[in-house]
Amino acid sequence: MTGWDRSDQLTALGIVVAVIAIVVGALAARRWGARRRLLRFDCIITPLILVPSKHLEAWSKDLIKVTYRDLEVKEPHLAQIRLRNVGPSDVSSAHFDEGKPLSINLNCIMYGIISSSIPTATTTPAIGGEAIIELGPHLLRRGEEWLVSALVSGYPVLEIESSLIDTDLRNDYARRVDEANEVPIP
User: What is the C-alpha to C-alpha distance for residues 181 and 185, in angstroms, rounded to an integer?
Assistant: First the structure.
């Protein structure tokens, strides 16, 4: 065969177009196809009493106190927890595996919930117990966020336990703490 006739050229062109269509289809499905749900978690911790030095601590010990329901809170901190659905779809209560809530362990002593945007889906232990906040199972619409503010004793060190199905959890708090702990190498 000395050259390509018209039918051979059209066959080769058809094969090239088919290969390009398969590659473009695979890339499009990966980019815009069925994506997983995505939640972003963040926490802002605010000490309620700042004591700059040990000398002032002894002097001002009885001048200012934080109480919750007439109980004095030692080393009071306000933990403001934010969970935002930034994914492509809603997270329904069916996405909580076996109805287990999202559990946030603050590793300190809980005094109480100051405010919650979802009071029906927020549970906590009794005053003076281990600070564990449980969220859900409850519908979290796309673009919606849950906010919970808790009064705790001691500096919280957060641990999150997620039982969500087909849902990724991005922990912005842990990322921020890791970046703050990095030491630049000169």
Answer: 13
